[in-house]
Amino acid sequence: MVGKYRAGVDLGGKGRSKAAASAAGATVSAAYKYPADIVDGALYLYATNKGALFINSLIRKERGQVIDIPDTTQLPRHAKLQFEAGENRPPFAPGIDIKSVIKALSKKGQAIAIMNQAVEEAAASGLNSYYRGEASTCAGCD
């Protein structure tokens, strides 16, 4: 999902994809209620290993599973470090306060709603496939 932002991110600190910004107002359902910075920050966070663990744990807990939520004290730092690795790296959530994203996601019932909105906005902008993780360099691997 982060690929959506790599082409349209404003490195000046605005942090909003052009495709998502144009789609957000017109095509997102009436359930839309989270600001763009929260939704975009959740996508960036979810693209990292520790961020995905945190968000998935919140969602599982919201669905009734008895599960511990990982400590978020170092989450912004770990997520930023993960984005800084690699050759063709996107900036990590430019202009977005990741701590406020974590706080919004942590409120009861919001992780599912925020991620659902993110998927809906991404689909409205033409992004219909979602991948997380690293690209494989294995010859013949699909």
Observed structural traits:
142 residues, mainly alpha, globular
Q: Explain this structure to me?
A:
The protein is an all-alpha fold. The chain has one domain. Helices cover about 55% and strands about 0% of the residues. It is built from 7 helices and no strands. The chain is globular and about 40 Å long.
Give me the number of helical elements.
7
Beta fraction of the residues?
under 5%
Rg, nearest Å: 15 Å
What is the rounded distance between the termini? 19 Å
Secondary-structure element pattern, one letter each = HHHHHHH
- Helical content class: 40-55%
Mind describing the biggest β-sheet?
A: none
Indicate the overall shape: globular
Mean pLDDT: 73
Oligomeric status: single chain
Task: Provide the domain count.
Answer: 1
Number of strands: 0
> Unreliable segments (pLDDT under 50, ≥5 consecutive)?
1-30, 134-139
Q: What class do helices, strands and sheet pairing give?
A: mainly alpha
Strands, helices and their partners?
Blueprint: H1 3-8, H2 18-27, H3 36-46, H4 49-62, H5 75-84, H6 98-106, H7 110-124
Short description:
The protein is mostly helical and 142 residues long.
